[in-house]
Amino acid sequence: MVDISRPWIVDTPLSERWPVYTRANVGEVSPNATTPLMWSMIGGPPAEREWKQALVEFGAFDIEEFRPDLIDIQGMVHGYIYLNLSNSRTFGARMPGATPELMDRTYLGEIEAPPYVPHPDDDKPGYTERILATVQRVLGEKARPDVAEHKKLAAKLRAERPDLTALSDSELLARQRSVMEYPYGPTLRTHLRMVYEGSVVTGALDQAVAGLGDPTLAIRLMSGLGDIASAAPNQAMWQLGRMVTASPELTAEFDKGVAGLEERLRSSGSETAQAFLSEFDAFIYEYGSRSTDEWSAAPKSWETHPSIPLGMIDRMRLQDDEKEPGRQAARLRGERQALVAEVTGKLSDNCEALSQILAVLESAELYSRAREQSKTNCIRMLHEARLPVWELGKRYTAKGVLGRPEDITMLLESELDAFIANPQSFVPVIAERWEWYDALDELEPPFFINGEIPPVTTWPKKKDPDLQPAGPGTVLTGIGACPGTATGVARVITDPEDAPDLEPGEILVAPLTDPGWTPIFTSAAAVVVNVGAPMSHAAIVSRELGIPCVLGVRGATKKIKDGTRLTVNGTTGEVTVE
């Protein structure tokens, strides 16, 4: 039996300078234990290098403050990724107009954290000038040409993808490494810096509307912006769903179930099936990089696992026409325009305040779109780096060395060359690591770590009934991310592969929602999520679709049982069990 008390293969020492870590928001990025390949190829040191530079470019840190060969901004504890909350608090202490406590609220909502203990180096006046220069730049920007350029690079990378099946093993590794170095590295740095730049904009918007007496204004003004990259697949899937509903032949095939659907359609000689597949293949070309757990080394992407988007299309075809994303977007744009007119009307006698809010609203539009496009750019590029590794996994599975393509994720990136040189020598290594990983993946990591790590043998199991189901009348609280209310039956879904279980009008209760979940939103009356913040993916997309959304309801997927009737108030952040 494997000894899980020792450090996981990619664990690294935690920071003494910044000792408080949290799983808040990280659960939206990486809810499960982390594979060696993910941390050594994508997260961990590769991401940390870009993250440190992003903070330096923002002006909030000097590179010398970080340990050169270790990770500080992230944390890796028995296979689980953490965010360094102390480092974020230092950012808040140095940021004019912010505080460590404000950073806590940004990442944690109302969750109580270990108390902030000031460090002599936290609040240093020398950073103020640099940070203010960044703030001035951000609030004055009218476009993000760097994000637009990265979008072109991502499209070029996809268009120039070679036939991976024709490449040798070593050529596959060379392509993976080349993409990760460029263009992925600089694109990731831009995205990470933009996360902090986006916080400047949301803070400015909160401040601009603070005196108008409506705490929901900031969120409502961030709705219906349009042209959000991560919402784009919804409209494309909707059109595919309408193709199904318009065709008795396609409807009959979908009615048989998603299992084997693609194979049935491809083996059909009918023009209708081929027309649908032509559109579906174009969809996969454009959006096939999307998945759940988007930063992992071998996610179930829509390209490698097409049954997942087909299952989402299956749900969309059942929706009424009024749920069309385009129709919803037009309605929301109209509501937002009316709200902007109302707000500016109230400030018509105050030229300075009016000018300020118009400028901030322009920045909010720019950064909401740019941040989601930046994330999309990263994922499209990362997909091109992961596919060669996936091809290796499939290749050695076919040879009988691996039991499944995902087995390759138990290797470190630095071990891949040795693996292709002598694959059999890694068979026992992979087996032991899977046993170790599976044991860790059963555990619920501590939400906070403050200096010392509780023994892993004391961590509860995820399936343990540690949270009692919420009874009638219970009000669960989180962060209101999209205004509006909805009442319906809860459907707890922990994997988008289960999307066919979601019936029209039900309330989606999910552990996280990255872009791989987006199309499911269209089938839901409202969304409740365990984690998230006002500028997280779930918040931005729900506001584009006009779906009431409450984030940061800690333990929602355990407290809320399937079939429970809920009322979700996306304005107040309350979820009431009926």
TrEMBL record:
Residues 503-573 form the PEP-utilising enzyme mobile domain. InterPro entries: PEP-util_enz_mobile_dom, PEP_Utilizing_Enz, Phosphohistidine_dom_sf. Pfam families: PEP-utilizers (PF00391). It comes from the Bacteria. This is Phosphoenolpyruvate-utilizing protein. It comes from Amycolatopsis acididurans.
